[in-house]
Amino acid sequence: MARILFVYPNREGGPVIPLAISILSGILKNSGHQTDLFDITFMMSERLDHNAREKTGLVDKVDVEKIWGSGDNANVEEEFKKKILFFKPDLVAFTIVENNYLWAKKLFKLSKEITKAPIVAGGVFPTIVPNFFIEDNHVDLICIGEGEFAIEELARKIDEGETTAYISNLITKNNGNIIRNKFSKYYTWEPLVFQDWDIFDKRHLLKPFMGKMRKTGFFEISRGCPYDCSYCINHLNQQTFKCLGKYNREKPIELAIVEISHMKMKYDLELIFFNDENFLTMRKERLGEFREKYVDRINLPFYIQTRADSLLDEERVKMLKDAGCVTIGIGVESGNEEIRKKLLNKNISNAIYEKAFENCHKYDIRTTANAMIGLPFETESNILETAMFLKKLNARSVSLAIFAPYHGTRLRDLCVENGFIEDKIYEEIGINNSSLLNMPQLSKEKIEELYYKFKDLL
């Protein structure tokens, strides 16, 4: 059977088990293949994102170094060489987002110096900008969209010595030719295969929540988002994969409950986090099924993310509370309604947000307001407006980020068109305390100053 080495170039150093790698590894092991992981998370001396969030004072401080350690300060390149020489992979598989692309690029080159194993690059970033990876001579295959079917077929063909040129969802390089294969059907979660967390350092399971470290499991009961916000890439995914049908799909509740129950017992979980982009896009009947089965067979506190306009129905909010929901993350983004509607293409009024937060607090569900500052054309006055609106909402916590112009978003295109950024890859993109935009009305330095002073404005 084939030996597949996954690479997790998690440069920010914030522990979390990515669903993509854990699902793909579970599928491969279920088919009899061997998997291993090279993970730089605990090699990093700085946890850039977590440290920035703590410095704002917007989150409860936790002594994470007692659990996560202070960073091994390991030589990543040397450790990568050791891993490849020890494991001897037949395939090296990278899951890549824009934040970790430049680290991944270094490891592409190093991998080719050590092993002849082909490299497959998958994840959000290769899906959005496949040409970056086509042009990289170190990358052999690029996975576009979901990889569940592709990785299993790829491993089988490698094991059996067959050509890997013609596999759905893959762009392949074959004797100088670029082959763009058709898309396979969407993954349906059937038959059920459990996530593989065994390849990860167990410190990944421990996450800070309300001032304590808790064993946290990450799961999904749906995929995709039906909305079209300008700071997100969902519009591209909807266009790219429209030939496959509805982009936003639901995992059968029974399958989700079986998986969560298994992982709860195996890893002694204390908290569940649902990765779904908009948890409450589901029908009320489905929510009722979830509540009944979750309470009966899981009965752990859980955290979701959803849109404010999905929280206007008090009955649905009460159903969440009865099921065990302890926190809801709600994307407010900006306190300025015009910016939210016209710039961000998020057509939700301030009145809807006020009602949504009121409903959550009525049923004693903790709220986290997600907001951004440093948006294109934003002024200092707009940022103060955001702070005042969050104060009015009485959110129990605030998750604040400085806007990041990710590839594939319409806001990035707007930033390039207006000269706020260059059309290139930025190594520091996505680090919460750093703005990339050069704007005449609001300097980088002022944005970063307001980021760290934001708590004082609430």
Automatic annotation (TrEMBL):
Cofactor(s) named in the record: [4Fe-4S] cluster
Residue span, Radical SAM core domain: 211-449
Gene Ontology molecular function terms on file: 4 iron, 4 sulfur cluster binding; catalytic activity; cobalamin binding; metal ion binding
The keyword Ribonucleoprotein appears for this protein: no
Keywords tagged on the record: Iron, Iron-sulfur, Metal-binding, S-adenosyl-L-methionine
Superkingdom of the source species: Bacteria
Stretches assigned to the B12-binding domain: 1-165
InterPro entries given in the database record: BchE-like, Cobalamin-bd, Elp3/MiaA/NifB-like_rSAM, Methyltransferase_Class_B, rSAM, rSAM_horseshoe, rSAM_sf
Gene3D superfamilies, alphabetized: Cobalamin-binding domain, tm_1862 like domain
Cited CDD domains: Radical_SAM
Descriptive protein name: Uncharacterized protein
